[in-house]
């Protein structure tokens, strides 16, 4: 088997693949950067105060963000000590 595998690789023309490139992810935005981005990209004719009021209305209507995902709420399932 030790002699067959290198022979098989040589016959099939297997070459060493180059490693995939590594891409750096941008650092997560801070709260101040996110707010500045929101202020720069307001809808036409909308003030920042109006945007804040709408965001508050949405949070009041839907509640605070949960820790749930597509599989349901995340719970601590570790056994009690």
How is this structure best described in words?
The protein is 42% helix and 0% strand. By secondary structure, it is mainly alpha-helical. It starts with a helix and ends in a 19-residue tail after the last helix. The relative contact order is 0.05.
Number of H- or I-type helical stretches? 3
Low-confidence stretches: none
Mean pLDDT: 78
Proportion of residues in helical segments: 40-55%
Cα distance, first to last residue? Answer: 52 Å
- Shape descriptor: elongated
Structural class of the helix and strand makeup? mainly alpha
What share of residues are in beta strands?
A: under 5%
By DSSP, the count of extended strands is 0
Brief account:
By secondary structure, the chain is mainly alpha-helical. The chain contains three helices and no strands.
How are the SSEs ordered, and which strands pair?
Layout: H1 4-12, H2 31-40, H3 48-62
